[in-house]
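Task: sequence in, structure out. Protein: HD/PDEase domain-containing protein.
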Amino acid sequence: MMKEEERVRCPIHDLINFKRSRDEDILLWKLVQTSAIQRLRRIKQLGFSEFVYPGASHTRFSHVLGAMHMARRMLDVFAKNEAMEISADLPINRKATLAAALLHDVGHGPFSHVFEEISDHFGVGRDHESYTLDIIDSPEIKEILTEYGVYEKTRQFFAKEPGYSVFNAVISSQMDCDRLDFLCRDRYHTGIRSAAIDLEWLFDSLRIEQVPVDDEGHVHQYSFVLAEKGLAVAEEFVIAYMQMYHTVYFHKATRGIQFLVHDMLVALLGESETIPQMRATTLSNFIHNGGELATYMQLDDSSILALAHMAAENNWGHGTTLARRFLNRDSYKCFEIPSTVSGNVPRSKLERFRTALQTENIYFIEDIISHRSYKQHAVTDPNFLKNILIKKDGEIESLGNVSGFLRAPAPRVARIYFANSGARDRARVVYQGLG
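Result:
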């Protein structure tokens, strides 16, 4: 039975409240108690980032609570706007949007992205989005959403092409509840001192307005728009996004651990049929039963950690070697290809380098990334309303049109990872010999 008020203490948003007097909060509190949401306590938000930033051990559970809270604040903007066409259905759409914010990460597996790669390698071929839909369709979640009349509306947020609405923008846009929370939360737990976002000023500047979505200005849709005073905080938000990708999400040491764990799992699970202890693990069952939902829901980060410990205590060849390295933070080593004067990857030299490495029989993993930047959609683009919009001098413009420093394309970086420092040093000599 829910108390008159339930509260969760959050280091980012202080108190996140659930009140029995609000019907939407009863729905949300019931969802929080489900095994599907509670499983997220056992999945780290930043995967292997704690190997670089020891404080980054926070979970996807804390993040989805924060994303739900950010969704509330975005939806509260309706109270200070007169949008008659959407106000009539606001209560039911608000409930569905908040439920979607709480459920948006529910389909993630252990160490998220590396696990999806492993699933693909062994032919499971399903991503976390497809598991999210399956979980929403499961009796545990579906019955709660149906009870409050929001099952279909909540599910629509996770369809492949949900289309645009102001409510979809809360869940998926260039400034949605997901990004608003994880940029602040990840910054806090990694200890990064830059990349700050002034949330109070951002929400004080946020409006809902009718935005023209054609060149002639005849067709309008409601969308979130920042008042002109919010230009600086919008730029601050995008800068934070770019900085966090550069310094945290694509940190070379984190990626090195990720690639090592990928190879560890390929080696171990590939031999699981011949090793009785491993064959009995949930991970092995998941791979060999085609990725069924019931087994997937038993998986969390401890599934991979337990397998690594098991392998480290035995002698299972290459998988054991990699498991011991993983537990001792002995990651793959990175060699970053020097970029061209324009900041791009030297493609012709990179191709010759690949060929030379193969000739020298040096194992390598290539990782070409583009540092995240602001993605601009033209007014004629169907995704125009996914832009961050600013009202300047009475006109509603995309942030990219009114902020000069966001127009530069994101530089691309080519990193090559090697099994150890000796292989990396050999590869560096090979690269230098290419001229």
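The longest helix spans residues 231-249.
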